[in-house]
Design brief:
heterodimer, A: 324 residues, alpha/beta, Rossmann fold, 5-stranded mixed beta sheet, 12 helices, globular, B: 340 residues, 5-stranded parallel beta sheet, 9% strand, binds thiamine diphosphate
């Protein structure tokens, strides 16, 4: 079986959905003949034409706004941000118009906004964003962040088929580094379902995106000392799989929440609060969060490495929790 | 020997003209050095060339008076403009190499540095269009502080499609702020041709939406660009408000080093390569009897010496200490006050 990269999985999901459903189209900057800044949409304009693979001016508000208008008319737009950081330029449109549409006036606005996110590539303050938390407190958007090629494809299909707007966060560090054998048949990964990547009994790591690999590494290292770590890949951040989180905490009694975005006000704060509210009796140790520093993403490699969570930080936190 | 062609120099002396040539050569030489460092993986992150656009960057920025507090705001392809404003080549190389003693101490990329009140230039953020409102604010403060400074902002054909550009231009124009905006029409925004960016016949026509002055200039003609910028700067300083100048030029390289610009027709590249602004400017000076090949050789060897020295200094500089990443977010922790 040939291996599919995380990047190709995203393209395959778009292509298969566009073949299946004539309402689906792609809109964004340089997505057409150039095939996207990361070549995510390479070959798509050749197959679907410029009517369905639409190059836009550098106008993020127009991209998200036009996608939303088209969605109200029954289309199923996929709006690409060249880097997910530029969604901040269309934040107003997305959180005010798109996300609130169904609740305010009963008009669902099924768009997917997708684009490359995340750090570790020396992209500096404006090409490294992990945007989930800035949307969590603005109800109306679903937020997913796949870490595997399988989930990237399956979740993007779910997102396109979903009747509400979905923010699809791609980790660009994974684009060409992750390759997997994927099923030949159509499949989806449901939004809102976590995946237990590794099952264990002493400690749970709840994480998503590229941090699942940091969690895997830490778990493998801890296993050498006979510490059994459960790794939960949340995959969907909103809605999130509360049941999977609580079940795991009930089993291991210790939990680390690991994410790449800054600590304070990060998505992990919500998960920690939910655990404290609903699983307090199961906890043998404090809930621990490992996240980036509370600063903009610095560019220089030594600074960025210090800023980002890594395996050592997770292992140190695990050892601390195991002392309880 | 043919007799010299008389040249309109728009008040520029021979020294000025040779200094402009020096900045052109310095920009090109420094950028070629950055390419070499990029290929050795010493430049961290992307490298965005300004080959073929050095003329308008340098000529427009040369129309400002930094002693009066004027401020220039480059985008990624306007390294020449900040060299004119006084940026040190060693600081630029250190920025690209993400060094501890670079102006941003490794936090920011390439030419994203500079303080408007201290340096005479201000680094951009990546979000295209955002700098136009910021430059309006700089011009506004200058007026409130009763200084007669002028702001100059560079913006691309692509970036002029953003909402921030329109809001900033409109605000600056209704406020009659001393702002000159150089809208570089270099043919492409990444892979997108200008025709798919804006439907106006000339990008200078966007001025009609704001009600500001405008003109279109051949951005590869150094003297014409200088003259247009000078007129706009004088208008701004005299209280005449905003001018939008469309500088027609061409991006001779891909969007960044990774992009081989296969989407650009070869004929366009050939056409514009014959209009190289540096070659053209030097030929004009020779034809007018103002300078000789020997002058340019001296200028070129000075540029090379300075770039060599800047590179040596940057290569010797340390990388930042990792722990520094946690500091300098707010005033009061002393990080930015420490000497480097
Ligand atoms: C708001 C925003 N959207 C997208 C980008 C990604 N991007 C970086 S440069 C670029 C093209 C810029 O074209 P132009 O403004 O014409 O300047 P040029 O590169 O031609 O000098 C794009 C799309 C960005 N930096 N900011």
């Amino acid at each position: 079986m040939p291996l599919t990269t995380y990047l190709d999985a995203i393209r395959e999901a778009m292509v298969e959905e566009m073949r299946r459903d004539p309402r689906v189209f792609l809109i964004g900057e340089d997505v057409g003949s150039y095939g996207g800044a990361f070549k995510t949409s390479a070959g798509m304009i050749e197959e679907f034409g410029a009517e369905r693979v639409i190059d836009t001016p550098i106008s993020e508000v127009a991209i998200v706004g036009a996608a939303s208008g088209a969605a109200l008319m029954g289309m199923r737009p996929i709006a690409e941000m060249q880097f997910i950081d530029f969604i901040t330029c269309a934040y107003d449109m997305l959180v005010n118009f798109t996300a609130t549409s169904r609740y305010r006036v009963g008009s669902g606005c099924p768009i997917v906004v997708r684009g490359p996110a995340g750090g570790g590539t020396h992209g500096g303050p404006f090409h490294s964003l992990n945007p989930e938390a800035m949307f969590m407190n603005r109800p109306g958007l679903k937020i997913v962040a796949p870490g595997t090629a399988y989930d990237a494809k399956g979740l993007l299909k779910s997102a396109i088929r979903d009747d509400d707007p979905v923010l699809f966060i791609e980790h660009k560090f994974l684009y060409r580094r992750i390759k997997e054998e994927l099923p030949a048949d159509d499949y989806i990964v449901p939004i809102g379902k976590a995946n237990v990547r590794r099952s264990g009994k002493d400690l749970t790591i709840i994480t998503w995106g590229s941090m699942i690999y940091v969690a895997d590494d830490a778990a493998a290292e801890l296993a050498k000392d006979r510490v059994s770590v459960e790794v939960i890949d949340l995959r969907s951040i909103l809605p999130f799989d509360e049941e999977a989180i609580l079940n795991s905490v009930a089993k291991t009694n210790r939990v680390i929440i690991l994410h790449e975005a800054p600590l304070t006000g990060g998505a992990g704060a919500e998960f920690a609060a939910r655990i404290a509210e609903k699983a307090f009796d199961y906890l043998d140790a404090p809930i621990k969060r490992i996240a980036a520093l509370d600063v903009p993403t610095p560019y220089s490699p030594p600074l960025e490495a210090f800023y980002l969570p890594d395996r050592e930080k997770v292992i140190a936190a695990a050892r601390e929790l195991l002392r309880y | 020997m043919t007799s010299p062609t008389p040249l309109e120099t728009h008040g520029l002396t021979r020294e000025n003209l040779l200094e402009i040539d020096y900045f052109l050569r310095l920009t090109r030489t420094l950028e070629e050095r950055l390419v070499a460092l990029f290929r050795q993986s010493k430049v961290i992150g992307g490298l965005y060339r300004s080959l073929g656009q050095e003329g308008e960057s340098v000529a427009a920025a040369y129309a400002l008076d930094y002693a009066l507090g004027d401020v220039v705001q480059p985008l990624i392809r306007n390294m020449g403009s900040i060299l004119v404003a006084g940026a040190k080549p060693s600081d630029i190389v250190k920025q690209y190499m993400a060094k501890a003693d670079s102006p941003t101490r490794g936090r920011e990329l390439n030419i994203h540095f500079g303080h408007p009140a201290r340096d005479g230039f201000i680094g951009q953020i990546s979000m295209l269009g955002d700098m136009i409102p910021v430059m309006a604010g700089i011009a506004l403060a200058g007026r409130m502080q009763k200084r007669h400074l002028v702001g100059m902002a560079f913006i691309g054909d692509g970036a002029s499609s953003t909402g921030a550009f329109y809001e900033g231009m409109n605000f600056a124009t209704v406020q009659r702020l001393p702002l000159v905006v150089i809208l570089e029409n270099n043919g492409y925004a990444y892979s997108t041709p200008t025709s798919k960016q804006s439907a106006v016949r000339s990008l200078a026509d966007k001025a009609h939406a704001f009600g500001c002055a405008s003109e279109t200039v051949d951005g590869n003609d150094v003297l014409a660009t200088y003259a247009a910028a000078r007129r706009a700067v004088e208008r701004a300083r005299a209280g005449g408000g905003v001018t939008l100048i469309e500088a027609k030029t061409f991006r001779m390289k891909g969007h960044a080093e990774h992009d081989n610009q296969s989407y650009v027709p070869q004929s366009l590249i050939e056409e514009w390569s014959a209009k190289d602004p540096v070659v053209r400017f030097e030929k004009t000076l020779v034809d007018a009897g103002i300078a000789t090949a020997a002058d340019f050789e001296m200028i070129q060897s000075r540029a090379k010496r300075e770039v060599d020295a800047a590179t040596d200094e940057a290569e010797r500089s340390p990388m930042p200490n990792p722990e520094e990443a946690a500091r300098g977010l707010f005033a009061g922790d002393g990080f930015w006050e420490e000497q480097r």
